[in-house]
Amino acid sequence: MGRLLAGRYELDDRPLGSGAMGEAWAAWDPKMQRRVVVKLVRPLPGRQSNVPAVFREARTAARANHPGIVTVHDVERDTTGDWFLVMELITGRDLSRVLDSGETLAVATVLDWASQVADALQAAHEEGVVHRDLKPSNLMLTGSGRIKILDFGIAGFLDNASADSEPIGSWPYMAPERIDGSRGDARTDLYALGCVIHELLTGRPPFGDLSGFALLAAHRKTPPPPVGKGVPGLPPGLDELVAALLAKNPDHRPPTAAHVRDRLRELVAEPPAPAPVRPPQEPEEPAPRRSEDDKTHSRRRPGVPPSPTLPGPGAPPQPAAPRREPPPTPPPVVDPPSGPPRARRRRVLSLVVGLLVCAVAATALVGDSEDPRKLWFTPIGAQGYFVVSEGTAFLAGPANGTVEARDTASGELKWTYRTRDTTGPVKVEAVAGGRVYAVTSEGVIHAVAAATGERHWTEPADGKKDGVRALAVDGPSLYAVTDQEVRSLDAASGKPRWRTSVEGGTHITATPDTVYVSGVAPDTMVDYGEHAGSLRALKADTGELKWHARMSHTISSAPAVDGSTLYIGSWNKTLYALEAATGRERWTYEAGEPIGSTPAVADGIVYVTTQYGTVMALDARTHGEVWRENAPKYGTGGRAPQVVDGVVYLADGDARRIRALDARNGEEKWARSVDTARSFSDPVVADGVLFVGMIAKVHFTAGDPRQRTLIALTTRP
Description:
This protein is of the alpha+beta class.
């Protein structure tokens, strides 16, 4: 977890992106149990005192309750004095990404999107709120096909706070009155909507490759080319509507966004005009050469000839146009948000007292100790990682830099291992061959005897931090995925075997002949904070690449391997079944919700949970639904299911319940509620005991981390 704002909002480790208005962060709101976007607003130089006034319009915008407008949940000020907005977190692609993809858009699709935008604008305008920076990158296309407007009114906020004479906004979509210094009104948004429609239909804004003052002059004086010139077959009247939206005089534009919405809906139902026949001898006009700065404002769609470059009358020498902001860097794919590391105890007495407090508090957190299904519970380290094998649970100890071994039946402590080379938490990743493997926050791998807790080896010995994300063990080999590579080590000695350069890997699964590495494909952002997914198969003995499969969205889990097939889910709401040997697709299943956890496979059935908590059972051969249980609402569900002896075990943080379902029909066999839980780890079943790591939704004292507890429940009927 990163910064904690106003004692409530827990920012991710990295921002989604930044711009003139500040930084956007994905964050966790524990009070409302939901993921949100926090936008830290950056005051302009010399105008710090005006920043609070910025949020008066934000509160007004929040009243525009419309499904096409991203909801503003909160306006707050941190103890540091920083002001920020808290907004709804949206999953999808902004229309700038859609345009950059080069896909040809159907005219009916463009008109539908534009009518949705106009409908949302009308709701905002009725509340007296004007966007003033409408553009493709501020229009988000969700998975359901709905358009949502981002950053409503923020350009207006900056106008209020700015002492500069230069108008604030995006130049390719800026209305003439804004260029002349006016703040504009609702008709300013209609002009920008006309620019957006023009670009969606033709692949380029109304004035093509112009930049700088020439572009501003064209907005003020030059009539834009008709959209019908470059796009044949438009409905009659669309050219006239776009021309009216792009009128230089606001009085000549449509009177309201509702008028535009209704006209667009009428045009969707009207037949297209016959396409003009172009003389065969007429050569296609070559596209002008463009600088890198200009390319962000000109996207040529396949089959659409370029529109001519329009000169700006009497334009002075052209400065470079403001560059479009680069796509935000998404935060890395991580497990549920974790609290800040516990401050290092300076005295032994303080450590003992702290652990006693944790133990007492854990008793209150996990409920009635007389619960007949509960065997034991114990505090667990900040990362919440644990593995179970042969009657022992190995977990990150509550004290930083420690690993504990506890009896699975009683919870009795067997041994404690101290790494001595870290002040941060430890991740317990795997157990095999009589050894437990853990990774420190500095990236050091530790191999420890499972029976005694004695150290076998560490690698790298110098403690160099190399970003180890996950480990996997198969037979004599240990595999580690880092920020930049996958490497193989001898599991018994830690000696290196091979290294292979792999960027973006976050999860790893090993079989006797293949190592599967999943994660993100670098430099392939496809959505707001989302990258394309990547799945690689490497030869286990050499590290050579066998095959590489790409998915359209981030993969945030390891694949499940079952014989000749592997199964993996993606944030594009799809479950993939691939040939393990080649990576070729066997089938796909549209779950309707993002999948961020590893599926489970048992007796020819694939069990999947979505990020919303929906659970489903699919026939592994035909991907037909055997049964499905939909989640009642969005939450922090989606932990990987565990299937043992015909029972599916689930831990749902949104419902705060640990459950056992009949694997054949999904009927609930038993359930246990934990009212204080904020989220759970993946459940693990071993030796007749169900283990679940829990993160509580409360803080004990200001500045302390959330209590983390490992709960052990019996699986008996």
